[in-house]
Amino acid sequence: MLGLGLLISWYAVRDIKFDVLINDLASINLWWLLVAVGCILLYFGLEAVVTHMLVASSTPDFSFRDALRVPLVEQLFNGITPFSSGGQPAQVVVLLQSGVDGGRATSALLMKFVVYQAMIVLNFIVSLVIGFNYLVDKVHTLAIFVVFGFLIHLVVIVGLLMVMYWHSFTKKLVNVCIKPLRWFVTAEKFSQWQITINQKIDTFYYESVRIGHQWKLMLKVFVVTFFQLFFYYLIPYFIMRSLGYSQANVVMVTSLDVLIFLVISMFPIPGGAGGAEYSFEMLFRSYITSSSKLAVAMILWRILTYYLGLILGTVALVMRPSRRLQQQKEP
């Protein structure tokens, strides 16, 4: 993915004179760029806060250090798998490493994911009102992807809520899906697996209901998630400020980034590579008139919102869980 990113970046600047590109890079306002860096770090940090709140409600000894590993590892596996499909299983593994019960870990992460998806849908509705006419006027083809992406996120939320609260259906579906395993293991082993899986589903269901009924906790999660996404959506605005575009409309720029977020989810290539860069250039070329600065803005945006997550996620992946929880797991 890093190699593909370098190739895409080269393609974006291939027709730009080298001295013009160097001049634009040298003229960047580092203070505004640092604000953009701060936004993405706050994005990671606030997701860790949400994870810690949800998991610590059932596992009081769960540390914030271990919670911080979760969103970073998620960024890594989201970034290297198609449709970001690897992020959720990776988070479960990280929590299991930290001594959290599998059912409780899954229910907490699923609740976090439902809130996250709900906030994306709400943000999209607001952004649609603000920026959809601009989107249709400038690049009407992307408008189709945006609407389709919204429908996918909406279906995901409905499906997750069914899994969380339609307990009997979930157990029946899982038991049907694992039946082929009987062909590869003994009847005794299969029976043990079935009992264990059903116990985990029960734990998952009861934990989901328990967390869902803690309205104060859920209100805090919604508020923190709102600010988490808010800081993420502000990143293009501060990048534009760092390039000297002080007259940029913060509301419109933020709304366009919300729409880009949905477009990226439509591309099966890990990280939305190619689609993300194309969407950014199409939507922001009216604001950033210089082709050189537009390419620089796009590259900086991808470094902060994608490649930084890969690097930090790799570091988090090799970190050990806190020693206290490791000792608790030992017999």
UniProtKB/TrEMBL annotation:
Membrane-topology descriptor: Multi-pass membrane protein
GO CC terms, sorted: plasma membrane
Record's keyword annotation contains Lipid metabolism: yes
Highest taxon of the lineage: Bacteria
Keyword vocabulary terms for this entry: Antibiotic resistance, Cell membrane, Lipid metabolism, Membrane, Transferase, Transmembrane, Transmembrane helix
The keyword Cell membrane is assigned to this record: yes
GO molecular function, one term: phosphatidylglycerol lysyltransferase activity
One Pfam family hit: LPG_synthase_TM
Its EC number(s): 2.3.2.3
Catalytic activity: L-lysyl-tRNA(Lys) + a 1,2-diacyl-sn-glycero-3-phospho-(1'-sn-glycerol) = a 1,2-diacyl-sn-glycero-3-phospho-1'-(3'-O-L-lysyl)-sn-glycerol + tRNA(Lys)
GO biological process: lipid metabolic process; response to antibiotic
Transmembrane region(s): 30-55, 113-136, 142-166, 217-239, 251-273, 294-319
Cellular localisation: Cell membrane
Chain's role: Catalyzes the transfer of a lysyl group from L-lysyl-tRNA(Lys) to membrane-bound phosphatidylglycerol (PG), which produces lysylphosphatidylglycerol (LPG), a major component of the bacterial membrane with a positive net charge. LPG synthesis contributes to bacterial virulence as it is involved in the resistance mechanism against cationic antimicrobial peptides (CAMP) produces by the host's immune system (defensins, cathelicidins) and by the competing microorganisms.
NCBIfam families from the UniProt entry: flippase-like domain
Family assignment from sequence similarity: Belongs to the LPG synthase family.
Protein's UniProt name: Phosphatidylglycerol lysyltransferase
Protein's organism: Fructilactobacillus florum 8D
Species classification: Bacteria, Bacillati, Bacillota, Bacilli, Lactobacillales
Gene behind this protein: mprF
